[in-house]
Amino acid sequence: MPEIVKKELLKAKEKINEHKNLFGPTYNNSGYICVYEDGLPLRPDYVTRVFIKTVRKLGCYRSH
After folding, report:
1. Which domain of life is it from (predicted)?
2. Using one digit for the tens of pLDDT, what is the confidence trace for 11-44?
3. Do the beta carbons of residue 49 and residue 26 sit within 8 Å?
């Protein structure tokens, strides 16, 4: 595993542990890395939706 990937995964794990402490027993321990703050897994279309929203906000979106 490249060192940069390992470093980013460890940072993500640290962030998850912080959220677990904040949410306590209500934290959803899904076992995934890509999760919302409460531990629920990100929706499969999350990246697409955020990308489109960002492009529109920047005024770069053109409809077909």
Report:
1. Bacteria
2. 999 999 999 999 999 999 999 998 999 999 999 8
3. no
